[in-house]
């Protein structure tokens, strides 16, 4: 069990003897300060996580949808797999190369009843593509829907074909299934997702099961029971900071607001999924992308990149491969990140216990203008006095504090730290 966390309280004050305002410089990329590669910690081991659990840490990888939509092809997947290696993303922990909708022919094989890879988009078939991906130390993911058709209506869904599809996925060497929610014929989600969960278990291959029913019918309640390793908590993300209240598609802060009450449902092997990353797709600033990545990491969310990895900027790569931040995401200290305080003016404090007794903290400025945000060791769950090591996870700077942790945070930005227990002299 992790440390106890108090409920957020609007306008709660901070206490402490000293204030530490951190203004640090390192490598400046696209308006965002990021750590030099040599200052980053090694990629995280699965600290605090029991062995023998599928998806024992939040899955990390890439998905084709956000950038390529229905234009995904075998060539795109192959080039992306190579880019995961050459960019350093594989070594930073990204391992899944996931094909989304539109990969199959519009009808099933009349003899076997199986889904058939699209003849022009995937001429080599899924099995050969899985071999290509596996040869690079990566894993292959695929997509279907718990309905009669997939969301783009380009291919059949897997409803009532769960066993034949799961067997095919296993035979092809698939390692991950994203299972969508379109054209479900009004049948209960728990029943539809249970059927595929059972089929995957019977397939003879370990396949990570990603339940994508947009937060409908409380998938965090039935997800673990039906074999889900992760479940979407909201409708689809878009590459925007915020969307209007009447929009089905959601921006970063809209999605973040829907995660506040879900922390107790996450644990190794079963994760809340606030949807894929939009980092690098061009609709937000680098400051906003740093906030997006930091908050998803603190939430123990799956880190599934959605940009074109073959053409990303150095700034995008630096965000996606920040090993200090990834280490927070991959560590299990008993709870995913939680909102600890919302001041009501856009300033928020989020915290997450770490397995080594430290705490990761994000000072988040939702507002457009810069502001100073502060917290204390007590507020973030660290007991006792004395000096504490303080590591800025975006600059790599290491300092110490005996009281308040404080930073000037840009509009739509974050400051992210890892704060230790008191040093023993």
From TrEMBL:
Its EC number is 3.2.1.22. GO terms for biological process: carbohydrate catabolic process. It is an enzyme of class 3 (hydrolase). GO terms for molecular function: alpha-galactosidase activity. It catalyses: Hydrolysis of terminal, non-reducing alpha-D-galactose residues in alpha-D-galactosides, including galactose oligosaccharides, galactomannans and galactolipids. The keyword Hydrolase applies. Gene3D superfamilies: Aldolase class I (3.20.20.70), Golgi alpha-mannosidase II (2.60.40.1180). InterPro entries: Aldolase_TIM, GH, Glyco_hydro_27, Glyco_hydro_27/36_CS, Glyco_hydro_b, Melibiase_C. Residues 345-419 form the Alpha galactosidase C-terminal domain. Keywords: Disulfide bond, Glycosidase, Hydrolase, Signal. It holds the Pfam family Melibiase_C. Belongs to the glycosyl hydrolase 27 family. This is Alpha-galactosidase. The lineage of its organism: Bacteria, Bacillati, Actinomycetota, Actinomycetes, Pseudonocardiales.
